[in-house]
Amino acid sequence: MGSDGIPADQYRSAMRHYPAGVTIVTLAGADGPVGFTATSFASLSLEPPLISFNIAHTSSSIAAMLGADSLVVHFLGEHQQELARRFSREAGQRFSEPDLWTTLETGEPVLHGTPLWVRATVRERFAVGDHTLVVGLVTRVHDDTGSAPLAAPLLYYNGAYHRATALD
């Protein structure tokens, strides 16, 4: 238990009941492409356009993230559950299929089939508890959502992936 907090297992159990959108963060690492799933994505500010997400200090991607100048955040649709699972597995498997991704002219890997993603430059990193909070300035938006029927977003809830249903 933390100095004034509840036990970690109690906190984890409660947070499992809060649905979160699923994103994949990708960046160019010193030894090749790096990527990981992140359900902690947030839009922070419109002026300037800032985003944030957290990465665990135990993540295999933490060293690359701490050294990165820029990154891409992919917003996953319901059709991309297998991609989310791939980027939650062992780091060596994430980019093992070259048909799944390409590299932007700025060097970051970008995943095919993701109609909405943003590129950001890293502005701040804060060590907070057992995670690092990363704040980025959005410098590019790729929005291909208007050219095809928009897939429902992929959500993570109670330890599993789910399809969001529209509220009309």
From TrEMBL:
One of its GO terms (biological process) is pyrimidine nucleobase catabolic process. The keyword Oxidoreductase applies. Coiled coil: none annotated. Its EC number is 1.5.1.36. The keyword Zinc-finger does not apply. It is an enzyme of class 1 (oxidoreductase). This is Flavin-dependent monooxygenase, reductase subunit HsaB.
